[in-house]
Design a protein that fits this description.
CATH topology of the largest domain: Rossmann fold
CATH architecture of the largest domain: 3-Layer(aba) Sandwich
CATH superfamily of the largest domain: ANL, N-terminal domain
Oligomer: single chain
Largest sheet: 13 strands, mixed
Number of strands: 15
CATH class of the largest domain: Alpha Beta
Distance between the termini: 34 Å
Number of helices: 10
Number of domains: 2
Length: 339
């Protein structure tokens, strides 16, 4: 078994107590094998053999997924996940060598937070994603649907009447939970156009939004959005999934926009004006910062990413909130390197 395969097994079964140790091991691997990250470290004058703690690991600006092949392996690329974008816009591309590993990681994360997939019917309302063939979210949900082994699970593009019929059919079948996972604008459209009164009292229903309006509707505050959706779908809370093309792990919120991270992920907030000044959890000097992510599942690409999201720490460990996005698309740090 190769070193990378051994690390993947460790990542899937990771004990949180060993996160730092494994992160440093992954960092050393990627500092040697990822040409883009290696050159970025060189421009920062960071010597990998002197990095001995999480606090010293630099984060690669996520924009490099738009302009470079971010890979830590010479193996064959099996699939490419791409972000959504308007016509002419450069999109991020995540070159994936091991799609089966993505399936293993995402399945384990979901089941650790929600229980076995076989205990679910999954109804997916993801029109903007289904219209593309390279969505990481569709890939994940397709895998989840197969794992439910439910004849009722499936995708819905424009056939919302069929979706409503399926929900009505499952209304009085509480033996399994029903997960309605949808892109935010599609859930809002359904809430405004359909009579959902029959869902009242359906305690085994979970409604999960994947974020974003994708240019289809005006952006709303999360609190406002969730209030509208909870009332429409007659649920006590709206769940959320935190993921992106450039990540192979996911965070989940059970309500009120508070995301919980799996063992394979960690976030650190950075100063909005100085990307190299970090705020550790528990520090009260600043409530909002740019989100830096460690995603060990990105072992074949880059696990240490400086994202364009703004967030804050939750009170409990491994929790955080997403508060918005940076207005400018090019974060400081990118201009340190021209490849």
């Amino acid at each position: 078994m190769s070193i990378t395969e051994e690390l993947k097994d460790k990542i899937v079964s990771l004990n949180p107590l060993h996160f730092e140790e494994l992160s440093l091991e992954v960092f050393q691997l990627q500092a040697r094998q990822n040409a883009v990250y290696q050159q970025y470290l060189s421009h920062l004058k960071v010597k990998p053999d002197q990095v001995e703690s999480l606090e010293k690991i630099p984060y690669l600006p996520i924009e490099f997924f738009k302009s470079h092949r971010v890979l830590s392996s010479q193996a064959e690329v099996k699939t490419i996940f791409a972000s959504s974008g308007t016509t002419g816009q450069i999109t991020s591309q995540h070159l994936v060598i091991d799609p089966d590993f993505y399936d293993r990681v995402s399945e384990r994360i979901f089941e650790q937070m929600y229980g076995p997939l076989e205990n679910f019917h999954i109804l997916a309302l993801l029109p903007s994603y289904l219209e593309r063939s390279n969505s990481s979210l569709v890939h994940m949900v397709r895998h989840f649907i197969a794992k439910t082994k439910s004849e009722y699970s499936g995708f819905y593009l424009h056939n919302t009447d069929e979706l409503l019929e399926r929900l009505a059919l499952l209304r009085d079948q509480p033996e399994k939970k029903v997960l309605l996972i949808g892109v935010t604008f599609a859930l809002l459209d359904l809430a405004e156009t359909a009579d959902l009164s029959f869902l009242e009292g359906m305690e085994h229903l979970i409604v999960m939004e994947t974020g974003g309006m994708k240019g289809r509707r005006q952006e709303l505050l999360r609190e406002e959005l969730h209030e509208m959706l909870t009332q429409a779908f007659h649920v006590s809370s709206i769940h959320s999934e935190y993921g992106m093309t450039e990540l192979l792990s996911q965070g989940y919120s059970f309500g009120e926009g508070l995301f919980h991270l799996p063992a394979s992920m960690n976030i650190t907030l950075r100063d909005v004006n100085d990307p190299f000044h970090l705020y550790q959890p528990g520090q009260q000097t600043r409530s909002t910062g740019g989100i830096n992510i460690i995603d060990l599942a990105n072992i074949d690409s880059c696990s240490f990413l400086e994202t364009k999201d703004l967030g804050s720490y939750g009170i409990a460990p491994q929790t955080f909130r997403v508060l918005g996005r940076f207005d400018n698309s090019d974060l400081r740090g990118c201009n340190l390197m021209v490849l």
